Amino acid sequence: MTKLATLTTNGPTATLALNRPDARNACSIELLDAAHECVDELGDAAGVRVLTITGTGRAFCAGMDLKQVIIDEAKGGCGDPELPRRLLGSLGRFTLRLRALPCVTLAKVNGAAIGGGCGLACCCDIAISHADAKLGFPEVDLGLCPAVVAPWVVRKLGAGRARKVLLMGGVMSGTDALEVGIVDQLAPDRDGLDALADVVADRLAKGGPHALAATKNLLNELDGSLDAALIERGADLSASVLARHEAQEILAARVR
Amino acid sequence: MIRVDRDGDVRVITLDNPPVNAMTPEMLDALRAAIDADDDARAILLRADHTCFSAGFDLKAVADDAADQPVLAALLRGLSSVVRSLRSNPGPVVIASHGAALAGGCALLGGADVVVCSPDATFGYPAALIGVSPAVSAPFLRCSVNDGDARRLLLDTKTIDAAEAHRLGLVHHVAEPLRDEAMQIARALASKPAHAVRATSDWITTISGPTDELARRGLDASLACVGTEEARTRIENAARRR
């Protein structure tokens, strides 16, 4: 069976690729399990200084797998009222684990980064993309609350910008994502992203691993990044908003 | 002093106290009542008529104040309560600012979800010139701009222009015509699922603050300067120069 997330290491750099291209790398519970396994595996890969997170195919990550957050089976959903909460909790813990890694994390946003996918990019230390990528948080448009990833967006953008971005919903171009601070650097086009990612990863890998880890640790401590209880509360909130009739109806209309 | 109109699902609140929408305690009371009004509007657009958004507290009102400056204290309390009302409003709040938004005028921005301004807009907190501390704004400002910029804005009385305010994150869009753009954003917000918008807005406040406790400490810090020799003398001198 195809692995839904893969880890490849190459000396001091490693790549974690979400590998579900036919579903634009949407986060199903299975994909997140595979992503967690990649982080387990990385724990043994001593000497990795930079971890690049990216998506196989055209998308980076389309966010939550809608079929697993719709509860009613008759409406194309999963039939398991507990699954959305587990999915949200797993995504939250995955972002926390990435944040806590001693190596530098680089989001290589190769294409659509939507909702939880965009949150994944925001939790990485550095995010790069290209002008034509589509990024954003359309959760409120679907009657949902992006509570699991909101802490990363608030930390990266500042509360004022995060408020506007999360409440206005929709998606934006890579160029607009750069302006608002979701991504830190852009390749001129999609084809140029590989080269840019290599340059950035190689440069980051030049840093001393202890120095990099110490810096990350301190930054995480300063902004309270590793507050696991906040992420769990976010998952509770997000799951409760998601379970409401209003949200379930909008989601069902989307997958129909 | 405050006008309330309805445009579809949006309640449009307009500051209407010519020439510069200077704030009196009565105006702030009316503004708070307009924000807290219980109707079925799904979003608020707060804007202003006349030459600017608001030049802050009405100097005339505070210059004629008694020695312990009860009017100044009422203004600070009123301002704090208006900003908290904006932030806790069940629907999203858009502010459209043109011309100057100074001191108390600039403080209103802290309660908004989205701020749009015209290219001619200016912002700043020159309150210390009249011996008044803008601390009441600090807990909210600190959430929209970074610490270094918040310190500079609150301690240095120099104002900043629209482009810089956008760069700092104090405003989200610089647009012309201002009213159309702001109305479009308010309508878009009003059209989104209300519960999701409310939950998201409240969650961001939970994550980033300010807590009610911090907001109150900001107000207390400003109130501590009320009735001081410094505030009385500086306000008298400023009123005489006018």
Molecular structure report:
The complex is a heterodimer of chains A (256) and B (242). Chain A contains 11 helices and 9 strands. Chain A is globular and about 55 Å long. The mean pLDDT of chain B is 96.
Summarize the SSE layout with pairings:
The complex is a heterodimer of chains A (256) and B (242).
Chain A: E1 5-10, E2 13-18, H1 29-44, E3 50-55, H2 66-69, H3 83-100, E4 104-108, E5 113-114, H4 116-123, E6 126-130, E7 134-136, H5 150-157, H6 159-168, E8 171-173, H7 174-180, E9 185-187, H8 193-205, H9 209-222, H10 228-242, H11 245-255
Parallel strand pairs in A: 2-3, 3-4, 4-6, 5-7, 6-9
Antiparallel strand pairs in A: 1-2, 7-8
Helix pairs in contact in A: 1-3, 3-4, 3-10, 4-5, 5-6
Chain B: E1 2-7, E2 10-15, H1 25-36, E3 43-48, H2 59-63, H3 70-88, E4 93-97, E5 100-102, H4 104-107, E6 114-117, E7 122-124, H5 138-144, H6 147-155, E8 160-161, H7 162-168, E9 173-174, H8 178-190, H9 194-208, H10 212-223, H11 229-241
Parallel strand pairs in B: 2-3, 3-4, 4-6, 5-7, 6-9
Antiparallel strand pairs in B: 1-2, 7-8
Concise synopsis of the structure shown:
The complex is a heterodimer of chains A (256) and B (242). By secondary structure, chain A is of the alpha/beta class. Chain A is built from eleven helices and nine strands.
